Amino acid sequence: MNEALRELDVRLLQCLANDGGQPTVTELAGRLGLDQSPVAAAVTGLAEQGLVAIEEQALLELKAGARAERWEEGRCPERRVAAALAAAGGRAGIRELPAISGLEAKEIGQALKYLAQRGWATKQGAELVVGEGWSGPDGPAPEPDERLVAHLLTAGAQPAASVVEQGIDVDAALALLARRPGVVERKERRQRRVSLTQAGRARIADGLVAREEVSELTTELLISGRWKDVSFRAYDVSLPGRTPLQGKEHPFRRILEETRTAFLHMGFEETASPWVESAFWDFDALFQPQDHPARDMQDTFYVGRPENCDLPDEALVERVRATHETGGSSGSLGWRYPWNRQLAQRCVLRTHTTAATVRELARDPAPPRKVFCVGPVFRRETIDYKHLPVFHQVDGIVIDQGASFSALLTLLATFYRKMGFERIQFRPAFFPYTEPSVEVFVWMDSRQDWVEMGGSGIFRPEVTEPLGCRVPVLAWGLGLERLAMFRYGLSDIRELYLSHLDWLEEVPQCR
Amino acid sequence: MPVIGIPLDEFFAFYGQTLEVEELVEQLHRFGCSVEGWATLRRYRCARCGAISESAEQDLLPALCDGCGCDLRSDGAASFEGEVRVLKMELLAVRPDLFHPAGLARAMRGFLGQDRGAPVYRIEQGKWELTVDPALAGPEVRRPRIAAAIVHDLCFDDASLRSLMKLQENLHWALGRDRKLASIGVYDLERVAGPRLEYRAAEPDAVRFVPLGFDTEDPAAALTPEEILERHPKGRAFARLLAGAGRVPLLLDAEGTVLSMPPIINSEATRVTTDTRHALIDVTGMEDRHVERALNIVLTSLLEGCPDAWGESLEVNYAGDRRRTPDLTPQVVEVDPDAASALIGQRWSPQEVVELLRRMRHDASLAGSRVRVDVPAWRADILHPRDLIEDVAIAYGYDNLPRVELSGATFAQAHPREIACARARQVLLGLGAMEVMTLALSCEETTYQRTALPDEDRQVKLEHPISVEQTMLRISLIPGLMETLAVNLGHSYPQRLFEVGSVSLADAAAETGAREEVRAALALAGDGTGYADIRAMADRFVAEWGWSIDEVRPVEDGLFLPGRGAGIWSSGHCVARFGEVHPAVLENYRVIHPVVIAEFDLEFLSRMP
Fold first, then answer.
1. Do residues A272 and A362 share a domain?
2. In this complex, is the C-beta atom of A430 within 8 Å of any C-beta atom belonging to chain B?
3. Residue A330 touches chain B, beta carbons under 8 Å
4. What is the pLDDT of chain A when averaged over all its residues?
5. ∠ Cα A435 A440 A442 (to 5°)
6. B410 and A297: CB-CB below 8 Å?
7. Which parts of chain A register pLDDT below 50?
8. A273, A389, B73, B523: least surrounded by Cβ within 10 Å?
9. Which residue among A247, A268, A428 sits closest to B430, beta carbon to beta carbon?
10. What is d(CA A459, CA A328) in angstroms, rounded to the nearest whole number?
11. Which is higher by pLDDT, B68 or A111?
């Protein structure tokens, strides 16, 4: 028993058996009333099964070109010039020709050569005179090239062989057109002719059984088990796919989450603090003097509503005041100015996430503790390609009896390695609330330079002492937008918050 | 951070040898100076005052004269004086002693091992006296303190004059808070009549003198203080420091000639030139520690730069209360070497700590088990022994510190709010939405007009917004989503977006008067999108937190089409608001496809039901 054939295969074989001969794939498709591509695919399949033979032939296909447009009904431009000349009494000034022939001056210029070649007209001075080869109003019978163009204009693209069948001398026509590009286009094609093989004829003699062809697998086919009896139409898998509606994490979110994960993996607990913060926690508790330029209204967003907030317990406020004024019990000289309580009560939008970690230090200074905070901070910056009034920071602290500056550098190196930076450099720096202080630089291959990543240090005694902490507190802060800009090759920080869907779709999620 | 230019040739002359620029930059970085790079500048001399100014542009004069503030470009009164290589360094405000190339060389000679300990400068006790008018402390002037010094046997050239001028300028910024706390004047001593000087409060129209940069030969150039404040470029720039003062401070010599009007300008007559061999320096301000610190830095920079120069002190007389300036007595601080070793995490013997401190140009010596440090008078930044421990670590080199792991065991704990946000994002990603992030600042116009959210007057308002688009903290995530839809009008539809984040609401009960609330918002846009779609997703989202949907009630506000907005109530709380966005709102954002939107109260949903 022969395996069942697809429906199309059966129709193809029957067609070949009934009509005989060696039709081309195009002809076969025409006879079956189908598109060429499924027929071509079926023919290939049947040839692989040995049921049909394919003979490839070279084929010259001819087609009317763009210039043929001006050969109305196959009349070449020079014929139209000569006819107009004859109608005008056999001679006319060359400059008058456009008006009487309806052709453009440029076309007339090109026609002059062929008029002479065909003997239809010759130039005499500034005039054109009908030649000996021209007779009657319409001139001699159409020449081979004109007949070819006329045929192609009505019949469309044709194999040269079928044009010859129309009694047109194709060779002569092409010779005439040899130097007139664009009138007739030639294309070398391969044509496949199909015939039944011995095996194919035997198969037909055995009787053909067709399988139904379906395009979709349906529940009905599955339940009935009929899927076994049908064949599924093959798809053209090379066609492009559609863009799916996709749920995807924001690229910057990934940086924030990686940062959080890095600290969680190192045993840190996460904290948070209010966006609207007292100047006390944002500045005073960090030993920033009240006339420090960073506290200026030029740099910090002061809040109009709410305007003031509560201070923590009075003893703590008193210790902070004393530290600013005289150093208090911290062993420091202090800043030596009268500290103003009202300024500490003013509401600001937090300018750094250090406000969160210092609050956490005040809440529970007992070692050992490791705390971090990732979140937005606010600075009074005009928006441009490298500044935003809101950006994200990560801040961390370690409260540990055995903590040291060397341990801080080691920890920072571990963190930056987790974030993908292998080469790290530490440089001395100044920050108002840490001493010693250090700035972290990472090597950026793309820039061939060290890039500053964040500030760090050990909290000054003027910070820790009033909060009741007697052990070293390691602290650092780092802006995260920069990291994202380097990772995603952005030159404009605003890109991160414009959320262009094209960009979001395009950024690979897993890199 | 402002940037100063250190002329390399001048620096190398003070340093005593020439280094490769790359090598110098690397050492400065290890020392804690941040170098941005180096540049070749063109120097021009002002025809009016003779001061040197610099320009980075090949064909462009400096805009203003650094000396007298006149406009060099429009006057065209400047001559080209050659090129100079300059190291561009960030101003380290706490180390003003490094602003001058001689001061920087002094520090680097210690750091790189040529010199140890603090240099000793020769200061003789002189006979000059400076009397201070008590009225300067009064409400009419408020510039009560002055410190002064005399320097002999100076040697100036154009380069060193310019460095002195830049030092003054940078000290005015870093120490003086733009001349408010300290303002420095330097005068050619040979043109000052001594030995009795007077610092006095005067009527603004009482005297006339020719200010710096004006022609002494021109009778019309002599101006009253009042006129200077109105007409002279420096007068106009700093007039605010004397604003509201009935009288002005003047420094006069023994013959009553005006030397300067602090903190505005000096007189032309006593201007320092390359011919000046002896100089008087004064610093005026509010407190002795600021003016004396500035004086010490200017004085020791000059002495460091001129090997033959020496100083002379004078007596400042505050109505019988006498102080002698300059006072270069070191500040004595004790450092515990064991505490230093423990804090840095590197074992040092007391002798090693002494040596490291001496490399940072401190005079240090053993005092029993401790180290006594005599901090030089030009170091202004030592508040606490901790500051000296940092110097020890810098001298040792941050690169040379050992790797030390922390030993205290701690346990990781994510913040509950972040856990809730992560879960919400997971649900919304599962619903096929794209995460977007928008700025937490917004404005009333966007929130209440464009997006037509109900105005409950609960927003946190900024006092001095920087733009009309950012006047408040956002109270909802919906305007951000609408804006994101508006920037993506050209993208294919349907679109499905979400954001998870905090909003802020004024709340008198909160510690700082406002509190954040975590929200999630979801928007679907495209033809054929309607209420049913957002309802399905809102139901799903609420259900994922384990809350039952008790009731769904209509919500009527400007955001939603009437009859197509709703809220989900769970346990008496509105946990979600959603619906079809009103065409009027869509028009405000130029969106031409239907949009449905939902906002969820994660603060509530993330609690245990």
1. yes
2. yes
3. yes
4. 89
5. 170
6. no
7. 1
8. B73
9. A247
10. 16
11. A111
Say yes or no: B590 contacts chain A, CB-CB below 8 A.
no
Query: ipTM of the predicted structure?
Result: 0.91
- Confirm or reject contact between A248 and chain B (CB < 8 A): yes
Domain that holds residue A224: 5-58+192-232
A83 and A18 fall within a common domain: no
Task: Indicate whether A14 and A106 sit together in one domain.
Answer: no
Q: Do B425 and A462 touch (CB under 8 A)?
A: no
pLDDT in tens, B440-471: 999 999 999 999 999 999 999 999 999 999 99
CB atoms within 10 A of CB A237: 6
B123-325 CATH: 3.50.40.10
Test A409 with B398 for CB contact under 8 angstroms. Answer: yes
Q: Is residue A397 part of a domain?
A: yes
CATH for B331-398?
A: 3.30.56.10
| CATH label of the domain that carries residue A204 | 1.10.10.10
Q: How would you list the strands of the sheet with B472-473, edge to edge?
A: A303-305, B461-462, B472-473, B441-442
Which of 3.20.20.10, 3.30.56.10, 3.50.50.60, 2.60.200.30 is the CATH number of B3-111?
3.30.56.10
Same structural domain, A76 and A24: no
- In sequence order, what DSSP letters do the residues of A450-469 get, joined into one string? EEEEEEEEEE-HHHHGGGT-
* Among A305, A398, A498, beta carbon nearest to B406: A398
Cβ contact (<8 Å) for A276 and B513?
A: yes
What integer pLDDT is reported at residue A1 of this predicted model? 42
> Do residue A74 and residue A127 come from a single domain?
yes
Element (H, E) at B315: strand B310-318
Query: For A70, which DSSP code?
Result: G
Which residues in chain A touch residue B511, judged by CB atoms under 8 angstroms apart? 274, 309-310
User: How far does A486 lie from chain B, in Å, by closest CA?
Assistant: 18
Query: What is the maximal distance between C-alpha atoms in chain B?
Result: 95
DSSP state of B233: H
Query: Is B420:B606 a contact under the CB 8 Å cutoff?
Result: yes
Touching check for A338 and chain B: CB below 8 Å? Answer: no
Q: Do B271 and B196 meet the contact criterion of CB atoms below 8 Å apart?
A: no
Residue whose pair of structure tokens reads 């400059």 in the numeric block = A95
The span from the CA of B310 to the CA of B80, in Å, is: 33
Average pLDDT score, chain B? 92
Distance CA B568, CA B580 (A): 15
Q: Does A271 lie at the interface with B, CB-CB under 8 angstroms? A: yes
Rounded CA gap, B317 and B186, in Å? Answer: 20
- Find the closest chain B residue to A392 by CA distance: B439
- Chain A residues 487-506 with CB within 8 Å of chain B: 496-502, 504-505
Question: Do residue A160 and residue A220 come from a single domain?
Answer: no
Let me know if residue A128 belongs to a domain.
yes
CA distances from B218 to B210, B211, B266 (A): 9, 12, 17
Domain residue limits, chain B: 3-111, 123-325, 331-398, 416-605
Identical fold for domains B123-325 and B331-398, yes or no, is no
| Interchain pair B434, A504: CB under 8 A | yes
pLDDT of residue B398: 96
Q: What is the DSSP letter of B465?
A: -
For residue A462, the chain B residues in CB contact (below 8 A) are 383-384
Percentage, residues of chain A above pLDDT 70 = 99
A155-162 long-range CB contacts below 8 Å, 24 or more apart? Answer: A156/A63, A156/A64, A157/A61, A157/A62, A157/A63, A157/A187, A158/A61, A158/A62, A158/A63, A159/A59, A159/A60, A159/A61, A159/A62, A159/A191, A160/A59, A160/A60, A160/A61, A160/A62, A161/A59, A161/A60
End-to-end CA distance of chain B, in Å?
52
Domain membership flag for residue A246: no
User: Which superfamily, per CATH, for B416-605?
Assistant: Bira Bifunctional Protein; Domain 2 (3.30.930.10)
Give pLDDT tens digits for A125-150: 888 888 888 887 788 888 888 888 88
Tell me whether residue A343 is in a domain: no
